[in-house]
Amino acid sequence: MTEPTKFVFFGDSLSDPGNLYDLGEGIVDEGVRNSIGGPTNSVSDGIVFTEYLDQIAGDGAALNYAIAGALAGGSLSLGELIGGSIGEDDLLVPLDDPALDFDINLSAQVDRFTDDFEGQDVSDYTAFILIGGNDYSGIDTSDIAGAVAEFASRVLAAVGDTLASVLQLQQAGVSQIVVSTLPDSIFFPRAIDLSPAEQAVSQLAFGIHNALLTAGIEALADNGIAVEIIDLGPISRALAGDPENFGFLAPLSDTLTEAGGAVLDDFAADQVAFFDDIHPSTAAHGVIAAYLAHALENPVHEYDDQSNFALLGGADDLIFANGGNDIVLAGQGNDLGFGGEGEDVLWSGGGDDLTSGGSGHDTIRAGAGADILDGDSGDDALMGGLGDDLLVDGLGSDTAYGGFGSDSFVFTQSDLIGGDAPDDDYFIGGLGHDTLYLVVDAATAQALGAEVSTQELSDLGLTITGIEEIIIVPGRDNLDTLSDQVWFAQADIWGVI
């Protein structure tokens, strides 16, 4: 996808930018309708991954047929969805209104796309399908035999209708079709409250769905259908294993809608990974989109929670080291590396790399490119290389050395990133014209004024040498004032800043 891609999306609430909200106009009570989602009418606090992915890799004009609540298998009318989840008392139309017959499921979404473009050339579109999680809700597990039979029926319908939709899109002339697996079930906060047995059943159900879906897609591809499977497992497991690696400091069980948004008393919205117990926050949607944009074109490497050693080649690699004390040596491509939990050694190669240590005492070293180095929590050592690097401080007593280029350092006041006392950080600029971005709360920014003294830096827990310029950023809400920096977009979407 070197050229901007013309996307058309199909799916459920993870992909829906507000289509269900639009369908409810004049049908459902306005107060209930407005309570379903967030400020952009998606089931999140902002835009969802489909919109981010279109911004990153698309042409900015994606089509989206996804509808929140949709299933992969069978049919489901809007009236049935409303009756099952919202309540008939909130309807503004009679139960026999034709508008309630509108089918929201996958096959109907694809039908609407093919009807909309009947007789037209759609070969320049890439179809993206992510759906299936809703198909397994509400199975009664008290009767094991009955539950197994019900699951078997549902998984065959979900996977079978997904494969049928792929064939329908291919027959309509769509040139490329991408089908995503479901995220790992442990990714969702709802799984945290399940018993170990229930968690195992949930993981098994999603695992069987993904295995059958993958086998079916690969069989279609082997028979000449232009379709590929993309695996959401690695990013969902990495997010669940060490959310701090992606800037999520709040516990995963704390969501933006729980207890009236009480989590925002302690964390910023972009430090919270979930909108509710099954829907990611817009910040997490951004991370998912960044992952997908990479995985559509480039290799992804996922390691287990042991202590691993990885030596990579010249491709643009994405590495999830996960738990354990890992050693990762990246190659010459433009790589992305996430250390996860443990005390990791991450060494960038010759490209323009982004490397984030995660929790633990990490050592991160840049190579020859313009690299982004992120320490996260722990007492980390960040060493820039030959290029103009970005070095981002986290909690813990860190040492950051810029190296040979004109480097940028980002220091954030500890209580803005979950700390309760200053750390003991040491930043060394090195050669070149180096800049320190000092992110502090509004009161501290006002007290510092135009000139920042050595003592004032010390009070914040920071000692610097060889840094030529200091720029004060009054609060994390104003980080977007740095959006003109070449490193900002990538650092922001991955949750580094």
UniProtKB/TrEMBL annotation:
Domain of life, source organism: Bacteria
One GO term in the molecular function aspect is: calcium ion binding
* Keyword annotations of the record: Secreted
- Where does it sit, as one GO cellular component term? extracellular region
Q: Which Pfam families match?
A: HemolysinCabind, Lipase_GDSL
The cellular location(s) given in this protein's UniProt record come to: Secreted
The keyword Electron transport belongs to this UniProt entry's keyword annotation: no
What is the protein name stated in its UniProt record? Answer: Phospholipase/lecithinase/hemolysin-like protein
